[in-house]
User: What shape does this take?
Amino acid sequence: MNIIDKVRYVIKKGKLVDKGDRVVVGVSGGADSVCLLYLLSGLKEDLKISLHIAHLDHGLRKESEKDAKFVKMLAEELNIPVAFKRVNVKRIAGKLSVEEAARNLRLEFLLQVAKRVKAQKIALAHNFDDQAETVIMRILRGTGLYGLSAILPKRKMGRVFIIRPLLNIKRSEIEAFLKSKGIKFCIDKTNNDECYLRNKIRHRLLPLLEKDYNKNIREAFFALAKSAGSDYDYLKGVVARTLKGSHTKLQLKSLAGLHPSIMRLKLREAISFLQRDTRRITFKHIQELEDLILNRPQGSIVDLPKGVSALKKQKMLVFYLR
Assistant: This one.
């Protein structure tokens, strides 16, 4: 199958869009997002969807204004409406890394655009190679089943779904498609800056693993993520049927009686209810909560990232924003 047929197949098989959907497409101007935009534009009649471009200028590079102009030109060429916004990530980041702050601001912007234009889906251009890089990055930082599932092809985020139609497409296929069609794109020089962990993995660790250990290492990590994602989805269904009631007030006796895997996911669910993003919740944080439940005295508190705390009362564990 060519890349267009592969993406069409993935979208239809995974039910990534529904007839009549308005889809916000995150377009940075780079190769991946430009490829995604052209593919979705070519498939919109077949899929019976409408598109709306969203471009966030992070203000991190001198060329970023040129990227915005390029995206505007693309929008005009394809006759697709577009939303722009410029932010100063370094100024806003605070205690967060520039990477994390940029990611959070981008997601916030995409959700705002989706709400304003009444979109049901947000399409992002993560690809096959991104999946392998993300799995390795999370293993290096420490992760559990959720982290191993890495990038999901479809994920509910509030009232919209984040979809990733290129997740089965290799970066080499994206580049070949753009070259064959004579489609231009912007080059982000920071993608070669090895002060960022992802870039180190992309340019140094993955090539080393391919050369000295397993030439199909990307496929191996992709398969791991897919398997972990399937297992995680099943366990989420079990968790949804467990301890129904308040999301933030959990009965201690019932919690203690759960299998550790289910209890840990239930704890993550409670944190997620208060703070959508649980990226900074590590296994160590979950272990602290387990110790709070099983060993610490009434009145004990565990403080978690992003302002979430858990208080042990006489009969229940209460999560709140401090």
Remarks:
- The domain at 3-208 is CATH 3.40.50.620 (Rossmann fold).
- The radius of gyration is 21 Å.
- The first strand starts at residue 22 and ends at 26.
